[in-house]
Specification:
Blueprint (H helix, E strand, L loop, with lengths): L1 H21 L4 E8 L9 E6 L9 H5 L7 E4 L10 H12 L4 E3 L10 H10 L3 E2 L3 E6 L5 E6 L10 H5 L8 E4 L17 E4 L19 E5 L2 E5 L18 E8 L2
Parallel strand pairs: 1-12, 2-3, 3-4, 4-5, 7-8, 8-9, 9-11
Antiparallel strand pairs: 2-12, 6-7, 10-11
Length: about 260
């Protein structure tokens, strides 16, 4: 009986810890040096958040951002089935206070009314990218292209259309919810950096093994790929060894 109670207490303690990890408010600071970053232009500061799902963007989170933000990037899964559109709208409104907001679709974004989601994004002034790109200019005059593709599993991803007409010398950041977009990128894609989410870093890992790799900066096929563990969770509101995270990313020229 004593052993059973000890095991039960440890199990409950572990669940509480995993629940707490899933609801952490954490901003990772990251500097990425790119050899293709424009010369004689100031650094870019991005706030990157992916896989919000059921969570709320809080004032506490915004208060942890360490500096000015040029652009806000939402890397898909803004919401999912059962999440009120009002909550997603309120999250957008909080993020808008930081700077212009860019969005790409994730697989769970297709679980809600597309007409209502698109209208809400339009009403809130969000730049939603679906197989297209836009030129963005920061308040300091630094220029880059944001190219966004549709979700690989639920949408109709068309990378070629997204990067069409981009000049090779222009800095291009590819936004894709699913990091597997890397396997569609080639030299003709003219991509300098990819920002993705989707995997949740495995969400629940045991002895550092999980369904997916932990997030972070990787280089695949000679292209920098940054994958976030994500802010929210799916299925179970639990995390282990893959903490919830958002990112304050500074882009600079690699000398």
């Amino acid at each position: 009986m004593v052993i059973f109670l000890i095991i039960l207490a440890l199990g409950i303690g572990l669940l509480i810890f995993m629940f707490s990890e899933a609801h952490r408010t954490y901003v990772e600071e990251r500097t990425i040096h790119l050899s293709t970053f424009p010369e004689n232009q100031q650094s870019l500061h991005l706030f990157f958040i992916s896989d919000i799902h059921k969570r709320t963007v809080s004032s506490k989170l915004l208060g942890k951002i360490p500096g000015e933000v040029d652009f806000v990037i939402i890397g898909g899964d803004l919401l999912e089935e059962g999440v009120p559109l009002l909550r997603a709208r309120q999250n957008i409104q909080k993020l808008k206070t930081l700077g212009p907001v860019y969005f790409v679709w994730g697989n769970n974004d297709y679980e809600v009314s597309q007409m209502q989601l698109k209208q809400m994004l339009k009403d809130e002034g969000v730049i939603a990218l679906k197989n297209e790109h836009v030129i963005a200019v920061s308040k300091h005059g630094t220029t880059c292209n944001f190219a966004g593709v549709d979700d690989l599993s639920e949408g109709e991803m068309n990378l070629k259309r997204a990067v069409s007409s981009i000049e090779p010398e222009q800095l291009t950041i590819l936004l894709s919810h699913n990091p597997d977009v890397i396997y569609y990128v080639d030299e003709e894609s003219k991509v300098d950096l990819i920002l993705s989410g989707h995997t949740h870093g495995g969400q629940i890992r045991l002895f550092n093994f999980g369904m997916y790799e932990l997030g972070g900066l990787k280089e695949k096929r000679q292209i920098p790929l940054f994958v976030s563990n994500g802010y929210g969770t799916t299925s179970l509101p639990l995390r282990l060894q893959a903490r919830a995270q958002t990112h304050y990313i500074t882009l600079k020229r690699k000398e």
